[in-house]
Design goal:
This protein has 503 residues and is of the alpha/beta class. The protein folds into three domains: 2-187, 3-Layer(aba) Sandwich (Rossmann fold), CATH 3.40.50; 194-380, Hypothetical protein af1432 (Orthogonal Bundle), CATH 1.10.3210; 385-501, Beta Polymerase, domain 2 (2-Layer Sandwich). 52% of the residues lie in helices and 11% in strands. It has 24 helices and twelve strands. The chain has helices at 11-24, 49-60, 71-75, 81-91, 103-107, 115-121, 133-148, 164-168, 178-187, 194-204, 207-227, 231-240, 249-258, 273-284, 290-297, 308-319, 328-334, 338-355, 362-380, 385-398, 427-443, 473-479, 481-484, 494-501; strands at 2-4, 29-33, 66-68, 98-101, 123-128, 152-156, 402-408, 418-424, 450-452, 458-462, 466-472, 489-490. Strands 9-10-11-8-7-12 form a six-stranded mixed sheet.
């Protein structure tokens, strides 16, 4: 059994499957697309279970003796390996069963639901796709054999430099089985490649506007790398931010009516409508994520609550290289202090509008006020790591986070002073915890340097000195951060909870 989300299946999966068939002399290999993986949420740009099944069937045609099962897709809900292996054992009571896993999966196998039962019901084939992985896998195999009596065999497969994440962004499609690539195109799955978006920009824009757009892409990518944002999202938002800019205004207003876009622009601000139509086009035609759509929508005005990507696209638009010497101060500042650069861009934009007798749009006024207020708060309230830790724990406890653990990691790493780990009861709960922590700290002028996983089962908030990890239970067990940082000193956080409870 070779399980996974297969979102989409690629030649790395095919290579691993072929190696298992060959090395284990299998007469059957069953690809098993999960309905919902237990350790992570599926990303926004996800194919449906039926589409993933169909893509996996097309990929399986390239593997001798392979077939595809819909057991987990039909079962629905979270797909736990132990349930599937038990069902296969019932279906094939005399068979020798092998569970195919990758390096990361073998290293965390003990944390899976009923892992000992899994190892009793099936042998494990651990696929090494890089030379450096083999020794690690052999050591882990020996450990599992000694501790649980597991039978683990390390399978060496040809390395294929590809990931499903990369493919969902339209990159590396030459590493897709041809029939899978054709199916993706026909079904309109996943956002397109950056090269495709550049071609779309070339077709839609004049030469001068295209130069600005490509300059904006370059600046946005540089800022994303510098401040820890998603580079694909930054490049895509930059490439699409002006995609409707040169459509006549009357046609843009028609698009607003057709797409149910509600605006409140006055006559003086109607030129801003291109941001709304570009954002909706990015969502409809190019399947862009919510964060990219939002950054495009607010690229000309800013917003009251600007995300990191919002600030990157707003600033890159205002100070990219083709803006010349006029924008040099903002460009230089952006590489040192993104918030300060966004404020400078907003102030100079407002100054220019006033000089021409124009009216500053209300959203822009609010964006500037809020950014300046947060900056003042940050300058006035520089929390120590311990003060920051206290506020995070207190907020998480108030929102009913489970099993909060804080570790002092100054002896183990330079990444942070403290790691905080907590569990939520559902995807909604972990998002709620994340949002509440961010909101409470923003109110005091502190914003995260970096965030990850807002649609997954593991949300990370990096406040530089304190890194917050919010898990679903299965993901917490799978990644086992407390074990990873087992030699770190646990912090007594009960006093923080007591203060919060007013006892």
């Amino acid at each position: 059994m070779f399980g996974g989300t297969f979102n989409p299946p690629h030649m790395g999966h095919v290579s691993a499957a072929r190696a298992c068939v060959r090395e284990l002399s299998l007469d059957r290999l069953i690809f098993m697309p999960a309905c919902l993986p237990p350790h992570k949420a599926l990303p926004e740009e996800t194919a449906s279970p039926q589409q993933r099944l169909e893509m996996t069937r097309l990929a399986a045609e390239q593997v001798p003796g392979a077939e595809v099962s819909d057991i987990e897709a039909r079962r629905g809900g979270r797909s736990y390996t132990v349930d599937t292996i038990a069902e296969l054992r019932r279906l094939y009571p005399e068979a020798e069963l092998w569970l195919v896993v990758g390096t990361d999966m073998l290293m965390t196998l003990e944390n899976w639901r009923e892992s000992e039962r899994i190892m009793q019901l099936a042998s494990v084939a651990a696929v090494a796709r890089e030379h450096g992985e083999r020794e690690r896998l052999r050591e882990k195999a020996a450990e599992l054999a000694e501790r649980y009596g597991a039978r683990v065999r390390v399978i060496e497969a040809e390395a294929v430099p590809v990931s499903s994440t990369m493919l969902r962004r339209g990159e590396g499609w030459e590493l897709l089985p041809a029939d899978v690539a054709e199916y993706i195109r026909a079904q309109g799955l996943y956002p397109p490649s950056l090269e495709y978006l550049r071609a779309e920009a070339r077709a839609a824009l004049s030469e001068s506007r295209l130069r600005h757009t490509l300059g904006c892409e370059s600046m946005a990518a540089r800022l994303a790398q510098l401040y820890g944002a998603d580079e694909y999202a930054a490049r895509a938002a930059a490439l699409l931010h002006d995609i409707t800019k040169e459509i006549p205004l009357d046609k843009q207003l028609q698009l607003c009516a057709e797409w149910d876009i509600i605006t409140d622009y006055s006559e003086e601000n109607l030129q801003l409508v291109h941001a709304d139509t570009a954002a909706e086009l990015a969502r409809r035609r190019y399947r862009m994520s919510g964060e990219v759509v939002r950054a495009i929508k607010y690229h000309a005005t800013g917003s009251a609550e600007m995300t990191l990507l919002d600030k990157i696209i707003y600033t890159a638009d205002k100070c990219e290289e083709t803006r010349g010497e006029y924008a040099a101060p903002e460009r230089e500042l952006a590489l040192r202090d993104l918030d300060a650069a966004a404020i400078m861009c907003m102030e100079r934009s407002a100054e220019y509008i006033r000089s021409r007798g124009g009216v500053i749009y209300g959203r822009s006024v609010q964006a500037l006020e809020n950014l300046k207020k947060r900056r003042e708060n940050m300058e006035n309230k520089a929390f120590t790591p311990e003060e920051l830790l206290e506020r995070i724990v207190r907020t998480a406890d108030t929102k009913k986070a489970n099993d909060i653990v804080a570790m002092k990691v100054t002896e183990q790493t330079t990444l942070a002073d403290y790691f905080v780990v907590m569990t939520g009861t559902s995807s909604t709960h972990i998002r709620s915890l994340s949002e509440e922590i961010e909101k409470k700290l923003k109110d005091e002028g502190v914003t995260p340097h970096h965030t990850e996983g807002v649609t997954s089962s593991w949300i990370l908030l990096d406040y530089t000195t304190v890194v917050v990890n919010i898990f679903l239970q299965e993901a917490r067990e799978l990644y086992a951060l407390e074990r990873l940082w087992g030699d770190a000193m646990n912090v007594d956080i009960e006093e923080y909870k007591i203060k919060d409870e007013g006892k």
